[in-house]
């Protein structure tokens, strides 16, 4: 099968396992291809490695469960900054991009579902 066209887009998602409460974020390179027969197909890559679509049947990296909530990027890191502000450097006078760069990777902490949802509860 010869490839005719390809475009690549970058997207990131936040995930929360509804079984064990683990939360993580992952960025993807999504390659859209059209083969010689004019059929569309998509290849997902994470950290340079080909992976299955995170949207079809996501798997928890902690417990292997498949009941995983997919959210827009930033949900896990937002909760992380809320719960661990001392790990993110000074809060005043720091550009948002600098704060995000200073924040440790989401994979460095084990998240529980209650941690992820706490900031969104109404009081």
Short structural description:
With 123 residues, this protein is of the alpha+beta class. The chain has helices at residues 75-83, 96-102, 113-117, and strands spanning 3-17, 23-35, 40-46, 49-51, 68-72.
Task: Write a structural description.
With 123 residues, the chain is an alpha+beta fold. The chain has one domain (3-118). It is 17% helix and 35% strand. It contains three helices and five strands. The protein has helices at residues 75-83, 96-102, 113-117, and strands spanning 3-17, 23-35, 40-46, 49-51, 68-72. The protein has a five-stranded antiparallel beta sheet. A hairpin with a 4-residue loop joins strand 2 and strand 3 (40-46). It starts with a strand and ends in a 6-residue tail after the last helix.
Largest sheet report: 5 strands, antiparallel
The helical percent reads 10-25%
Tell me the overall shape. elongated
Total DSSP E strands:
5
Query: In what range is the share of β-strand residues?
Result: 25-35%
Uncertain runs are: 90-107
Strand order of the largest sheet: 4-3-2-1-5
Structural class: alpha+beta
Overall domain count:
1
Distance between the termini: 57 Å
> Overall mean pLDDT score?
74
User: How many individual helices?
Assistant: 3
- List the helices and strands in order: EEEEEHHH
Q: Tell me the radius of gyration.
A: 17 Å
